[in-house]
Amino acid sequence: MKCLPFLFTTLVALFLPSSLLPAAENEKPVDFEQEVAPLLSRRCVSCHSPNIKKGELSLASPDDLLTNGFVVPGDAAGSYLLEVVVPDGDKRPAMPKSGEVLSEAEVDLLRRWVEQGAVWPEGVVIHEASKADRSWWSLQPLAEAKLPAADEAPDAWKQNPIDRFVWAKLAEAQLKPNPPADRRTLIRRATFDLTGLPPTPEEVEAFLADNSPDAYPQLIERLLASPRYGERWGRHWLDVIRFGESRGFERNQIITNLWPFRDYVIRSINEDKPFDQFIREHLAGDVIAPNTPDVEIGAAFLVAGPYDDVGNQDPAQAAQIRANTIDEIIRSSSEAFLGLTVGCARCHDHKFDAITQKDYYGLYATFAGIKHGERPVATEAERKEREERLGDLQKQQADLTRQRDDIQKFAIARGDAKKEHYDQLWSRPAVSRQTTEERFAPVAAKMVRLIVEGQERNPSANNGYGIDEFEVWTAGDNSQNVALASSGATAVGDSRHAGDFDAAYSANLTIDGKFGARWLAAGPQLTITLAEPQSIDRVVFSSDRPGAAADHGVANFVSEYRILVSSDGEKWTEVANSHDRQPVNEAHRHKRLLAAELTDEDRANDAALAAKLAEVNKAISQVPPLPVWWVGTRDAAMGPFHLFVGGSPQRKGDAVTPCSLSGLSESAPTYELPADAAESQRRLELADWIIDPQNPLPQRVLANRLWQHHFGTGIVDTPNDFGYMGGAPSHPQLLDWLAGELVKDGWHIKPLHRQIMLSQAYQQSSDYREDAAKIDGDARLLWRFPPRRLSAEEVRDVILQISDKLNLEMGGPGFRLYQYLQDNVATYVPLDEHDASTYRRAVYHHNARAARTDLMTEFDSPDCAFSAPRRDETTTPLQALTMLNHDFTLDMSQFLAERLQKEAGDDPQKQIQRAYALCYGRAPTEAETKACVALAAEHGLPALCRALLNTSELIYLH
């Protein structure tokens, strides 16, 4: 503890103007903001900041230096700050604990600063230095891109601005582009790119026969107008925004009412909805147009990611789970719309980008009111119509229910007046969840039956009661439990089942003496058959015996019962019951009083009212319910909001308010809302800030995504990260030009498709040239069109189409390529056989997280637990094995053979020609025809079709 005079001296030294403090003799005055602050930012604040505060020290401000006396102004030798950064002989200094130690010059700078009075100008706060600051390229306003001259380019490469940019980069690398692709290749490329399906043979031939100069532009227009376009490009966007139809995490339960969002995405893209409006609806569709389902559904984006619904009774853990949930929304939003990894600032300022922890928690405050779940989504007219139809019926329901309640209340009141009588009648202790014992006069029995007449419900339990042990004891001095399975006893009772979990619910588990397991009953009785007749006088059973399994307290337990015995299974004798036991709770007591006190007249009146109520309930049930969709719910979630030190909700730091990111360039828009701003206002303000014309990120990010899906790789090859750790743009001026064109076209993306696909860069051939590949192996500079393998969905869809089995029905609930099994957790078992109900486009598959779907999983369909801005493209043995042997491929081979026979007759050569036209969009060579005819003759036409479906040419696009 430092003395008061020193503390006073320190305070004065830290806050007096530097002009009033003596400088060390013959030393240049230290400029804190220009010299010391950057040093502390680079070397110290990463560990010693308000967000982390290792050693309970922050060097972001002078507060801790004052409190702990780490610095003695004017006395470097007496300052602990200097002591920990100076080596002790050959020993490493105490600080920093890792990385390079401070250089002599850096230590000398700190020494001189202390010697000169340790001046820390008022209001200066130090942040950890990020690798990229506001000058980072992606944060700058869109440049007014000047078209390169491209004087040496052929005339065809001077018409489209895209080609001039590409040519200029090729020229810098002393490269030349490939010649144009042939027309068969071009129609196949364009059709797959815009629709995800191959052109039909008839479409190919019509395009080849059209010699007009508008043939190719008209092809593009036709494809952009196709409903298939939205399905293909909707799939791209669903990848980016981690759309999945199960909750993820341990339980991973399926979500059956999120498909309207998938349909909304496809519909919006087909309609060429302006993308700024699309983004706005994703973040605040329910605010922009409440009671307008086609818009409101857009906000389901916020809850379309994985969601931990396990829950936790520990408040600290519950708060952490909630923080994780909001973090997932922050990451998904910032990466999808801004191309920034804002989530990296959850625990501390971003190490690489100009994003502070305050920025992160500004977004946290914005999304704090979002809750995962479902709710009705309907128009105002639909709501009003339902209310009108239900109004009188619900009034009748309430009146009838009140009359029945009155009958029961009067009966219970009569019973309450006889308390002494019932206390004597119910004299034994209540049934216990832990252990219940019944003793009776010895009786010979071969079978013992528990008949359950009532159960006490646990709010968190499913239907059915639980028994973790049932014991039957013999009479006499050497009493034994003869209900053990090891003694030959068996148990029979209806049990709850959960698909492949049958073993976990076997009734036999209740009599093995190992009460860690529990039988979850679905029926009213459990029957124990002994190995041989015994004289018994005692039964003991429990639902939650001390020392039982980890799900302690979860099951419902028996509250009312009878116990019967039998020697032959035909004649049964009751030996015990719970009717003289005390009720387990007040509800149980009321139930008993009603049974005893209701008069015949009461029962008749109750029955009449029940009949009328049943009619009213039936009428209510026939009023169509409002659609219920997984769009999330909202709560007020008012402030104050705080930073979480180290990302822990238990360590609240400075207060924050909903606000824009601070690290964008000076010309970018900003906003900051009060902590008590409405939840809807917070999200709407964020949406409007993101799409503000002065915010350069969304335009660049979207233009890059479009380029990526046409050329395989984006101009920035990390489409979700335009920060320091992301890739550098291969054509930065072109990217800004594309982003500018996007804005000029009102954020419609179809015009940009046209511009890209009409370029010579897009229309060139994919031919490989070794000399060019030595300079640009990945063809990032586009000296050729980069070939690609079809995506998983395209592979499946193309097989269905050429086999003439593709069902083009759009929208609605998805089909499943797995069997869904669910009890407390979910299991997704891949289907070996795919029936006709699954022959729809793969975008309509019910995509569950962590669910394998054989062919599509093998071909790198991503798990939708995370954003997938780029598809992996692996080559594995399983791909070949699945394509060759899966029942789906075998079925499609048969269907393709039937199609060939139907459309080409019995002529083998015509069958081969038709097969090649369907599969590859071309005619077979003479050698191919000869080989295929021979294969079909020896092994049959389906075998040939199976071989064709397993060719590389089918699934690679050039």
Walk me through the structure.
There is one protein chain. Helix content is 41%, strand content 10%. Mean pLDDT is 89; it is low at 1-25, 497-511, 513-517 and 549-553. The chain is α+β, with helices and mostly antiparallel strands. Among the domains are: 4-115, no CATH class; 422-586, no CATH class; 887-957. The termini are far apart. It has 33 helices and 18 strands. Strand 16 and strand 17 (826-830) form a beta hairpin. Strands 3, 5, 6, 8, 9 and 10 form a six-stranded antiparallel β-sheet that branches.
Short description:
Helix content is 41%, strand content 10%.
Alpha carbon gap, first and last residue: 76 Å
Shape type: globular
How many DSSP H or I helices? 33
Assign a percent range to the helix content: 40-55%
Class derived from helix and strand content = alpha+beta
Beta fraction: 5-15%
Report the biggest beta sheet as strand number plus sense, adding barrel if it closes.
6 strands, antiparallel
InterPro entries: Cyt_c-like_dom (IPR009056), Cyt_c-like_dom_sf (IPR036909), Cyt_c_Planctomycete-type (IPR011429), DUF1549 (IPR011444), DUF1553 (IPR022655), FA58C (IPR000421), Galactose-bd-like_sf (IPR008979)
Organism: Blastopirellula sediminis
Keywords: Heme, Iron, Metal-binding, Signal
Protein name: DUF1553 domain-containing protein
Topology readout:
Layout: H1 4-15, H2 32-43, H3 63-68, H4 80-85, H5 104-115, H6 161-172, H7 183-195, H8 201-209, H9 215-225, H10 227-240, H11 259-270, H12 275-288, H13 293-296, H14 315-338, H15 357-367, E1 370-371, E2 375-376, H16 380-416, H17 419-425, E3 436-456, E4 466-467, E5 469-474, E6 490-492, E7 519-520, E8 525-542, E9 557-566, E10 573-577, H18 586-597, H19 600-621, E11 628-629, E12 633-634, E13 641-644, E14 652-656, H20 679-690, H21 697-711, H22 732-744, H23 750-757, H24 760-763, H25 770-775, E15 788-789, H26 792-802, E16 818-822, E17 826-830, H27 855-858, H28 877-885, H29 887-904, H30 908-920, H31 926-939, H32 941-949, H33 952-955, E18 956-957
Antiparallel strand pairs: 1-12, 2-11, 3-8, 3-9, 4-7, 5-8, 6-8, 9-10, 13-14, 15-18, 16-17
Helix pairs in contact: 2-5, 7-9, 10-11, 12-20, 14-15, 15-20, 16-18, 16-19, 21-22, 21-23, 28-29, 29-30, 29-32, 30-31, 31-32
